[in-house]
Structure prediction request, 653 residues.
Amino acid sequence: MIHGRLDYRHRRRIYFLLAGNLLLLGLIRVLLKEGSSFAEVLRRAGPDVAPVILAGLAMTSVIFVGAIDLSVASIIAVAGSAFGVLVHHDQPPWICYFACLAAAWVLSMWNGYLIRTLKIPAIIVTLAGLPFYRGLALIVADLGIPDFGGNISVYDAAYHQPGKFYAGWILLATIIAALIWEAFGRTPRQWLARGNSEEACRLLGMKPERILQSAFCAAGIFLGFAALIAVTRLQAIEPGRMLVGFELHIVGAVVLGGTNIFGGEGSFGGTILGAFFLYFISQALTYAGASAYFQEAITGAVILAVIGLDCAIHRRQKQLDELA
Amino acid sequence: MNWHEAPDMRNWILLLLLLLEIATFTFLSGVRFDSAGDFTAYFQSYLGDLITQSTPTLLLAFGMTLVLITAGIDLSVGSMVALVGCIMASFPGNTEFWWTAVPLGLLTGLTLGFLNGALVAWLDVPPIITTLGTMIFYRGLCFVVMGDLEKAPFITVPGYEWLGIFSGVIVMLGLLYLIGGPYVYHSRWLRELFMMGGNRIAARYAGIPVQRRTLQVYTLIGFLGFLAALSFTARNSSISAGSLQGFELQVIVAVVLGGTRVQGGSGTLLGAFLGVMLIAVLEEGLRGASIWGDTYLPFEISHLEYIFLGALLLIGVWVSNIAHQRSRA
Prediction:
């Protein structure tokens, strides 16, 4: 169903990423040393890549409607602060988890509300949110923990359950839910419609503002799970420094997955494959014995090469479209 | 005439805000002046420090304003400056540094900027995606060049220190803002950039060499990135692969705060200058008011910097949007 909805350019990107992922997995299988298990590599992939995919799904939702969220890392930091403060006050784990999910959801909704009411481009609102929420995370930690010195230690294993034991399952359940929703649900299609033309949506009797808010609502839920997994994997939460620069890496994975950065085109599946592709490249490099220092450069080069090539191929068509 | 109809009036408001900010933070820092001489000496050293430390941001704000005017963006500036610095840092710190490392740094800056421009102009990759990719790519190259090391050959290079002190940065900034600024402001070149930002396709049909202009603007950012790297390394004496992370957003926030629209087609260099200074005063002021903060606030006052930065940006753009809408009505 969704396959027919995607244009040939996006479908080709999905096939490329599928083939690329399989190829990389094959490469990793060949490069594995004696004593290492391939099943273990696969088992570890889910939890490792879970925060990126979940935050990627959140970013994809907001990019679908023609917005963007540059404050995702700072929102996760606030969620982390809230979680850490409650852990510090010995609250039961489920309350801490709930606070983490709720903080991310509320702030994402708040972003949507600001964009809707102030009529300011999402890139500016969330660019302002980036330092603002980071400051909020630090102030929450300052207020909640009397002698806060920059990090919050979480030693008790009871608070690490989602990140260390259930990350793969949470990821799998969310991916399945997202893909089913995308294939059969109406809302993701409305997001794409708004991303294509807000004016057309309005003329059709839809409410673009409400569609935008619903995208930020869904993004808040995805982001809540991303925050939960990212935060509960850590022994020490550093609200001021955790995940700095994460937002742009997420945008990188989303764009690599074929989603149009200006909205109206894309798929959750592409984002998932894009995030796995970047992860498997770094893993393949590690198993090939390449220095860890090369990994970031290669990630950047891959994003540039795939998107640059795609744009170059379609350049002629784009110029002809201009004339039409 | 309403203030929003004249961009110059907005600059006056920014200037007023800046003075208000300086006065508030001077009061909070607990400095007291016994004589006019004290007052002058304090502000001389205060402004000197302020300008010296914000030189890299000021240099790149110039380029970022121009690129935003064309409806582009450059997210790679932080990584670019760091990479130029890292490459220069791999040379030994002696007299030869001036004719080996420095020219190579210049060439690197120009090449990195040109690469961004080429991808945007020739391959039609959207600027935000191009520079996002190059941001990650250039940062990765920093790690390839430097690894985990922090290098400091700059201290032993004869005369290099001058680039980081007040007289050096004033020459750099003076040339850029006082000579380059007015020249650009009155040039046909800038008007072409405005037109590209307003409507790229119309600009092409109007005979503006859009590709060439795009290349020029991004290459100019590369050149300014080289100057910023000189000033940063001269002042900080050392550099590592992780230096200047988040710098790009600082520059963009400052420029947008100064009244440049990210959608393109509007912006002023003076606004960018004032935007950078507003943020620098805020940063420095909160640092100076730490004793006041410890006494009266239940949290670290320096953490307020992030809150103010976000709020300032949002309020600034909101006010400027309302003004823009009214002026069009």
